[in-house]
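Hi all, long-time lurker, first post. I run a small reading group and we've been trying to get comfortable going from sequence to structure in the token notation. Rather than ask abstract questions, I figured I'd post a concrete chain and ask someone more experienced to write out its structure so we can walk through it together at our next meeting. Sequence below, copied exactly:
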Amino acid sequence: MNTTLLKFFAILATIFSQAQSFTTFPVRRQLSTLNLQLKASSSDRLESIKAGALSALIGGVSATPLNYASSLLTHSPNTLGQWEFDTDMSSVEAALFGIVYRYVVRETDKSNSMLQQGVLGAFIIVRTLPQIKVPSYCDSIPLQCKYFYVLDPDTSIALVAAGVTSVATFVPVWLVLEYVMNEKGWIKRFDSFNV
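-- Answer (accepted) --
Happy to help. Here is the structure in token form:
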């Protein structure tokens, strides 16, 4: 048993020493690429901060009236506290959207409307769906309600309300980012060729 273990370690050592000689050149190239990335990253960070800050401002302001209406309609015990929390979360979500949008829709992709709409739609769906609450009359495992899955009158209204709020949060951010990046040039898109 000891000889088998020794042979195994000998084979591993041989493979490791051969693999090390093969990776010498790519490792140097990766280190030089990393050095270029570090030089470019400070300007990229600044652009991301600008995109995130502008997106947080626009998203928070555009979602504020609908968040207030939602907190009134849901009869929250602390209406103003819930409204403030929802508006703060809308700002955080919008900031994340702005940063991700800047990196996904790059300089080379700025005329690709399908990519732009795909990023926008993904954020709208991801923000909308978790806001749906399953009614108490539904059975679990497997989830069954009176109607189709959980889409009954109660959850349908909640789905529409959450969807409208999500659209009202992200679409203005998207429009402002496109305007600021394309027309004004205040925020630069991520350029994959500079990395």
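A couple of things your group might point at:
The chain has one domain: 44-194.
The chain has five helices and no strands.
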